[in-house]
């Protein structure tokens, strides 16, 4: 005997009206309206009896709202500042991790021939060396009445360097008389922190002894060539080394 199939109710059939649920909803709505009405009457009565209190409450609420907005603004600004600092820290870390390539000094000219220069050109070449190696306020002041100063400059560490340039031949060495004339003006007149006498020749023994006593740096031909091609120290570095050794 075949079992009769159970009839499935249609899916779009409307839900039957529920009187109980509807009544509960309206009761709840009436309660809410009553509470809100009671609260409104209470507030109105308080305003009539104590208008100052009501005004104070309103001001307090407004102040609280403005303070909340200010705190939110400060919080947003703090987040932006923190993000900027974090980005700067990452960039600094990247810079520290990057390999440091040492800066190479270059010669004033590839095949400079100091012997072929005039005394004025030699002074200009020495000034160019100072400028190349980081000196500022480099000036050629040699000439009549220079009182021993041919080139003046300020070293990278802030010292005033005064240089006298002697373009001599190999047979003409710088003597003690040259050092004494320069030593009499380089510190007292030109207010040098570092006094240098540079020559294309060499120095006599008395000249070197006098320079050591006065604190004058002597740059002979070999030292000049090493300074020029970047393999030797700068004259103001020689002054620092001598002071440290003493």
UniProtKB/TrEMBL annotation:
Transmembrane parts of this sequence: 21-40, 52-69
Keyword Transmembrane helix part of the UniProt annotation: yes
Gene Ontology molecular-function annotations: endonuclease activity
UniProt KW Calcium keyword: no
Source taxon at top rank: Bacteria
Domain Restriction endonuclease type IV Mrr: 115-227
Protein name: Restriction endonuclease
Organism this protein belongs to: Streptomyces bullii
Phylogenetic lineage: Bacteria, Bacillati, Actinomycetota, Actinomycetes, Kitasatosporales
């Amino acid at each position: 005997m075949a079992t009769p199939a159970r009839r499935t109710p249609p899916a779009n059939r409307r839900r039957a009206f529920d009187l109980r649920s509807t009544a509960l909803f309206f009761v709840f709505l009436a309660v809410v309206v009553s509470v809100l009405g009671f609260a409104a009457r209470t507030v109105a009565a308080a305003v009539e009896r104590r208008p100052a209190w009501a005004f104070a409450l309103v001001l307090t609420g407004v102040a609280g709202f403005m303070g909340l907005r200010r705190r939110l603004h400060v919080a947003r600004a703090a987040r932006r500042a923190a993000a900027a600092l974090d980005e700067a820290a990452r960039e600094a870390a990247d810079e520290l991790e990057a390999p440091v390539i040492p800066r190479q000094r270059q010669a004033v000219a590839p095949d400079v021939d100091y012997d072929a220069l005039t005394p004025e050109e030699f002074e200009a070449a020495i000034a160019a060396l100072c400028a190349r190696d980081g000196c500022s306020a480099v000036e050629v002041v040699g000439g009549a009445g220079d009182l021993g100063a041919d080139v003046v400059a300020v070293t990278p560490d802030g010292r005033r360097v005064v240089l006298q340039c002697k373009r001599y031949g190999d047979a003409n060495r710088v003597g003690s008389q040259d050092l004494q004339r320069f030593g009499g003006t380089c510190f007292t007149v030109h207010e040098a922190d570092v006094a240098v006498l540079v020559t294309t020749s060499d120095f006599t023994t008395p000249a070197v002894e006098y320079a050591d006593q006065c604190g004058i740096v002597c740059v002979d031909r070999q030292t000049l060539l090493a300074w020029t091609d970047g393999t030797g120290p700068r004259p103001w570095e020689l002054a620092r080394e001598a002071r440290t050794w003493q």
